[in-house]
Amino acid sequence: MEWRDYYKEHTMSPEQAVSMIHDGNRVVFGHAVGEPIVFQRTMARMGEQFHDVEVVHMVYLGSGEYLKPEMAGHFRHNALFVGGPARKAIAEHRADYTPVFFSDVPIMFRDGTLPVDVFAFTCSPPDERGYISV
Predict the structure, then answer these.
(1) Does residue 100 lie in a domain region?
(2) 71 in a domain, yes or no?
(3) Which of 8, 47, 63, 132 is most buried per CB count within 10 Å?
(4) DSSP string, 56-118
(5) Residue 11 forms part of a structural domain
C-alpha cells in the first residue's frame, strides 16, 4: 500500500482517537515536545465516559485538565517524574508517582513491567517520502 493511502486511511479526529480508549486501559503519553496536547484536552473533555483509566506520563507540563478532582474515578495519573500540575494531585493522593531512571522507561514498556494499551504522541506531518519526526 502506498504510504499516502495508509496515512489517509488512518487519519482521524481527536474525538475518534480518544474513543479508542477503553475503561481500565493504561494510556501513555509522549514526552516533552511529543506530548499530545490536543489529545489530552479532548480526553479530559470526554472524561466522564471513561472509568479507571491510568494515564502514564514522564514529566507532565500541560494544563492538567484530567488531573482535576472531578476527574477522579475517570483518570488516575501515574507520574514517572513529578512536575507542574501532577505535584498537587500526588500530594492529595489523586495521582501516583513511580520513580524510575529515564533509561529504564523503554525497557519497562518492552518487558511488560509497565504494559501499554494506548500510546499517544505528537509528530510532524509526513514528508514527501512518508517519514515523520517525533
Answers:
(1) yes
(2) yes
(3) 47
(4) EEEE--S--GGGSGGGTTTEEEEEEE--HHHHHHHHTTSEEE----GGGHHHHHHHTSS--SE
(5) no
